[in-house]
Amino acid sequence: xxxxxxxxxxxxxxxxxxxxxxxxxxxxxxxxxxxxxxxxxxxxxxxxxxxxxxxxxxxxxxxxxxxxxxxxxxxxxxxxxxxxxxxxxxxxxxxxxxxxxxxxxxxxxxxxxxxxxxxxxxxxxxxxxxxxxxxxxxxxxxxxxxxxxxxxxxxxxxxxxxxxxxxxxxxx
Length: 172
Ligand code: FES
Ligand code: FES
Description:
By secondary structure, the chain is an alpha+beta fold. The chain has helices at 23-30, 86-93, 103-116, 122-129, 139-157; strands at 2-8, 11-17, 49-52, 55-58, 72-74, 160-162, 168-170.
């Protein structure tokens, strides 16, 4: 066992665990954040995707000993903590989830994609999201939601906010 001081969603989390424990278990069982899911446990499905210093990573294959002192871990609970993020809103508007199991991982990958590429094409989306599998087959809606979020971001950076599907208001 060894002590680790982690920063998860801007909060300090101190754990005494085996060095090879996957970060996924630390997040779920010690930080008590259950939004990040276990799927394959082999870095193949993307259900366990979190951000490490803003980059999407598979937490099922990342041993806690691989986390450095100043690393920032963000889980789905840390995305839109105080108010829903533009991606989460788009997910609701497009009614993306079916069973929902894969969706926190999908959203983490989508947020990272939009950060690096605010106006992705379908091809960009498919490439960035290809590591996130959805057994329910929500891929079309995921694509639409990412385009919607990209539009939302464009509109808000122009000083205009969208309030629903067809309603647009000018922001002060
Ligand atoms: S559970 Fe980590 S990629 Fe599937
Ligand atoms: S919504 Fe069910 S697995 Fe993706």
